[in-house]
Amino acid sequence: MADKTISETVEKALILLSHLAEGGHDGLSLGEAAERAGISKPTAHRLLNTLVQQAFAERPPYSRNYRLGPAISALARVGIATDLHGERWRTCLAEISAATEAAAFLFVRAGDEALCVEADFGAFLLPTLSSGIGGRVPLGLGPGSLAILAGLAESEADAILARNAPRLRLTETRTLETLSAQVRAARCNGYAFDPGEILAEVRGVAIGVVHHGNPLPMAVSTASLASRLPEERVADTCKLMRKAVAKALGAPSQPL
Fold this sequence. Notes:
It is built from nine helices and eight strands. The chain is 47% helix and 19% strand. The protein is globular and about 55 Å long. By secondary structure, it is of the alpha+beta class. The protein has helices at residues 2-23, 30-37, 41-53, 70-82, 86-100, 143-150, 154-164, 176-189, 234-249; strands at 57-58, 67-68, 103-110, 113-120, 136-138, 192-194, 202-211, 214-225. It has two domains: 2-74, Winged helix-like DNA-binding domain superfamily/Winged helix DNA-binding domain (Arc Repressor Mutant, subunit A), CATH 1.10.10.10; 84-249, Beta-Lactamase (2-Layer Sandwich).
């Protein structure tokens, strides 16, 4: 029981940190941080104070908000120094961006969310769901997250969609049932395609990453103006993406 309590506390602290990152330089108030993390104010206050004590969070001198602290930057620098594969993915995304005239992203699963860990916008500045590196979207929102769900068992994917329902921008035509169908289509086709359902005039396509026949909890996606990605180009775009991903993995990669 104690181990479960500790793990739940750690999870809450990590969720708080991810939302502080979204708060940027100005940070978030206690109430905002608690609301976004889905926890009570007293719990958020206790966890944030601990994070401040350990320099993982700090309070700007000009406000009572909380933002990421210097310990996060220190860890990031260590991570970059020991990252053996990051450069491969940066090269991969740069190749995809240049060849497809689109912004390219690498997403990894983080709980019930997809976290953008690499991005290459090239010369294509356009609105995206994640806003780039460090951005998160709930699994089920956008082609990258759909491609990740396609690598899971259908029952697990549907359970995640149900948990994320309040955040999936559902409408009369965009329902949990239609999203589940999109995941099944991505699993069958080997890619997820967004014809501009969420962001008007912005289309995206994503492939799940598969290594030695095993789906990894990650996906590579693109976002481009609709005029640059007509449906007849989707198959060729996916073929190009798979080739670049295989090179990054250093081994043949197959679609989901």
